[in-house]
Design goal:
The structure holds two protein chains of two kinds. By secondary structure, chain A is mostly beta strands. Helix content of chain A is 3%, strand content 38%. In chain A, the strands form seven sheets. Chain A has a nine-stranded antiparallel β-sheet with strand order 11-12-13-14-27-23-22-17-20. In chain A, strands 1-2-3-4-5 form a five-stranded antiparallel β-sheet, with no helix packed on it. Chain A is globular, with a radius of gyration of 19 Å. Chain B contains 16 helices and twelve strands. Chain B is globular and about 75 Å long. Chain B starts with 7 loop residues before the first strand and ends in a 13-residue tail after the last helix. The chains are: A mainly beta, B alpha/beta.
């Protein structure tokens, strides 16, 4: 049973801010603009509260959100090489908004849309209709997210989507965390990711091949601080200016080329611990991929603080399908067809380790 | 470079009697076992480092502790790939020239300890260091960092180096430590440059009847299990990133064996945690009588003490003490003693292979039946059920993320293990 209270305020032009609270005093503020997580106030080891999310000062600022702060990104989270793919023999060209590539649903992606909040007994549900042709994608897609906060500090995000024409769908949350509440960058955070392999990228950050993490800076099967790993000499880190790579999470069975989407059972896949504050984030998901992004492009982004953000001021753990999967033999697993329902669940659990 | 042999002979020059060195070696081992690297490791069988003659050694690479001046000197002209390990320094001249260097980040460690004491509500701060020597340049570096932090906050940071540890001068050393602690404004938060040093100070406090953490909140560096076993009050400590340092050094050497060179690479590894135990759980709000009583309970709860003995120690009547406890903590003295015993028993039950009967005795319960009753009443389960639930929880966590479990495990507070007196 979830215990929570929900309150909301109207900011401007139909932009609303909803707050989920639990009995432990934890508060998560979510806006209908981009269905974005705006604040997450959580206590540290000493009971002192801080906002562990990066973002802007005013909800209105999320209208333009080039860093995708806190947003639900879609209909295609992550990159598509050249913004091109072939679906059922039909060539498709979608928006190219990062050099030659498509990124995060294009300039008019889900993160910039006003979602419609729906009454829900369990949490905050928001719906979005993405019309046929938006960002170049085929089909009208109806997407929904349900945010729930429980007494254990678990923020659960359940995604669903349906369509009236075949289209790639890959939804994820682009929340940037800094578990110390922004007093310094995330280099001292200690991360573990339960994955034996990751996807190596090319200069435009498109995956090229799967590689073992063993013996590389990418091996987080045992917990390790992020900062020193950023300093390991590694050509893959040089390409992205840090971590911006998808980890291949364990799946129940080997994915078969040509088969449709198989959601995995919800399992814990990553943990991040901040020694200074004692806060700990645990991530569970039904997805096959987990993009670890170390905030490599944050320098100069003016957020809610008096000073602009600097590189590595926040990190993202985006649970999703593989980047550019639509251009691989496993394309069918990321195609949503009429009559099918896309379902995804990711849980961010915030607590204190004693 | 000549052809790369399939098996590389690698020397690890460390002093495995220290927890820091041992963890580095284990990080190196972890790296090797995660890769296909085939390394024939050269280590002295007593894990002590004797680098004399190393320059004539026919091996392929070396990872060495550069905090040790003997090692540094012995490796001066060695042409093999060498990765240096040691403390971080503000002054670049302190680093060896033309060697990749993996450092424990002294700034981050002292800052983590200092911030912890601030958060615990302290306003006076001190550092317990070591007499200056070229073997412990890191101790002086930690002093400089501590001074910098306190100066930046506009407060006085007291530093005491004391004397080196020797059996002959031990009594004098302890007397001087006590005199130093007495001279400090109270309550004071003290950072010790190592756990070994913290342990000495903790002992001196107990010997002199100075309440820890009420009068002196203490935190060490190293998270050394041995230091915890030897103290009556569980010692808080900063956990160094030494395992990661080992992995990092092994990775660099691995690349160097295949021709890469990193003469200017310096990788600083921050601490990976802080183990907050009783020695730094300073609570500002308590009345001195309550603080003294808690100090006594913390040390002797597991030896079956009663409320009367606590009141005797504090020097007030039993009813007055009860009144203060009710007011400050909202529970009786007996409840507090019981709570401490219960916590101790829980922690022992969490260890595999522990037996309820032994635990009941070592935690000061008069009988295993009484411990059983207390568990039923307070936790709604028997000690055995508690143990099973804990083991099941661990298994579940292990199934979910094998990596997370190891770091989650709480070290057992040691005053709870077999009281000696």
């Amino acid at each position: 049973m979830t215990h929570f209270t929900l309150s909301h305020t109207t900011a401007a032009d139909g932009i609303e801010l909803y707050t989920l609270r639990n009995h432990g005093g934890m508060r998560v503020a979510i806006s209908n603009l981009g269905a974005s997580m705006i604040h997450w106030w959580a206590p540290d080891r000493y009971g002192r509260e801080a906002d562990v999310l990066l973002g802007f000062a005013r909800v209105e600022d999320y209208r333009h959100n080039p860093a995708y702060f806190g947003a639900i990104v879609g209909r295609w989270g992550n990159r598509i090489a050249g913004g091109r793919f072939t679906l059922d023999g039909q060539a498709c060209q979608v928006d190219r908004n990062e050099g030659e590539n498509h990124l995060h649903g294009g300039a008019e992606g889900f993160h910039r849309q006003l979602w419609q909040a729906q009454p829900d007994p369990e949490g905050l549900r928001m719906m979005l209709v993405s019309p046929h042709g938006q960002a170049g994608f085929p089909g009208n897609v109806m997407a929904s997210v349900l945010y729930r906060l429980d007494e254990d500090g678990q923020l659960r995000i359940d995604y669903t989507a349906t369509t009236d024409a075949p289209t790639p769908v890959n939804l994820t949350s682009h929340a940037y965390f800094n578990l110390n509440g922004g007093t310094c960058d995330i280099r001292d955070h200690v991360i573990s990711i339960d994955a034996d392999a990751y996807l190596q990228i090319d200069a435009s950050l498109i995956p090229q091949q799967q590689a073992e993490v063993a013996g590389s800076a990418f091996d987080f099967r045992q917990p390790a601080p992020i900062g020193p790993r950023l300093d390991w000499p590694d050509p893959q880190l040089k390409l992205a200016g840090g971590f911006d790579h998808c980890y291949c999470l364990h799946t129940e069975s080997e994915p078969v080329a040509g088969e449709g989407r198989v959601a995995q059972p919800l399992r814990e896949v990553a943990t991040v611990y901040d020694p200074g504050s004692g806060r700990e984030l645990r991530v569970s998901t039904t997805e096959a991929g987990l993009q670890f992004y170390s905030g490599n492009f944050l320098a100069g982004v003016q957020g809610r603080g008096p000073q602009a953000y600097a590189i590595h001021d926040g990190f993202c753990l985006e649970a999703q399908a593989y980047p550019d999967q639509v251009n691989t033999p496993h394309q069918e697993a990321v195609i949503l067809r009429p009559g099918q329902v896309y379902r995804q669940t990711t849980v961010y659990r915030l607590g204190v380790r004693d | 470079m000549a052809k790369v042999p399939t098996v590389h002979r690698i020397a690890l020059l460390f002093n495995g009697n220290k927890i820091f060195d041992r963890e580095i070696i284990s990080g190196i081992g972890e790296y090797i076992s995660s890769t296909r690297a085939s390394w024939d490791l050269y280590l002295e069988e007593d894990f002590r480092c004797r680098p004399q003659g190393i320059e004539r050694w026919a091996g392929h690479g070396i990872i060495a502790d550069f905090d040790d001046p003997v090692t540094t000197a012995a490796l001066k002209d060695v042409q093999l790939p060498v990765v240096a390990i040691g403390g971080s320094y503000a002054d670049p001249a302190q680093y060896p020239a033309n060697r990749p260097y993996v450092a424990t980040d002294n700034v981050k460690m002292v800052k983590l300890a200092y911030d912890h004491l601030i958060e615990a509500g302290l306003q006076h701060f001190a550092l317990f260091s070591l007499p200056e020597s070229d073997c412990n340049r890191w101790a002086q570096e930690r002093e400089r960092i501590f001074t910098g932090l306190t100066e930046a906050d506009g407060i006085t940071g007291h530093i005491y180096r004391g004397v080196g540890t020797s059996a002959q001068s031990w009594d004098t050393a302890v007397e001087q430590q006590i005199a130093w602690i007495r001279s400090l404004p109270k309550p004071v938060g003290i950072i010790a440059v190592t756990d070994a040093r913290a342990r000495q100070l903790l002992q001196a406090c107990l010997f002199a009847g100075i309440a820890v953490p009420e009068q002196v909140a203490l935190i060490g560096i190293d998270n050394d299990p041995l230091a915890r076993v030897l103290t009556r009050i569980p010692l808080s400590s900063v956990i160094q990133g030494s395992v990661e340092m080992g992995r990092t050094a092994a990775h660099l050497l691995h690349q160097m064996l295949h021709g890469a060179r990193f003469p200017d690479t310096r990788i600083l590894v921050p601490p990976v945690g802080i183990n907050v135990l009783a020695s730094s759980r300073h609570e500002v709000r308590n009345h001195p009588h309550v603080m003294q009583a808690l100090h006594f309970i913390r040390q002797y709860a597991c030896q079956g003490i009663k409320t009367d003995q606590v009141a005797d120690y504090v020097g007030i009547s039993r009813s007055s003490l009860e009144w203060y406890f009710r007011r400050e903590l909202g529970r009786s003295v007996h409840d507090e003693i019981l709570r401490f015993k219960l916590d101790a028993a829980k922690r022992l039950l969490e260890q595999a292979g522990s037996h309820a009967a032994e635990i009941a005795i070592s935690c000061g319960f008069t009988s295993v039946q009484y411990m059983h009753a207390v568990f039923k009443r307070e936790l709604g389960c028997t000690p055995r059920e508690y143990q099973e639930q804990f083991a099941a929880g661990l298994e579940q966590a292990a199934a979910a993320a094998p990596s997370a479990v190891r770091q989650k495990k709480k070290p057992v507070g040691t005053s709870l293990l077999e009281p000696t007196k």
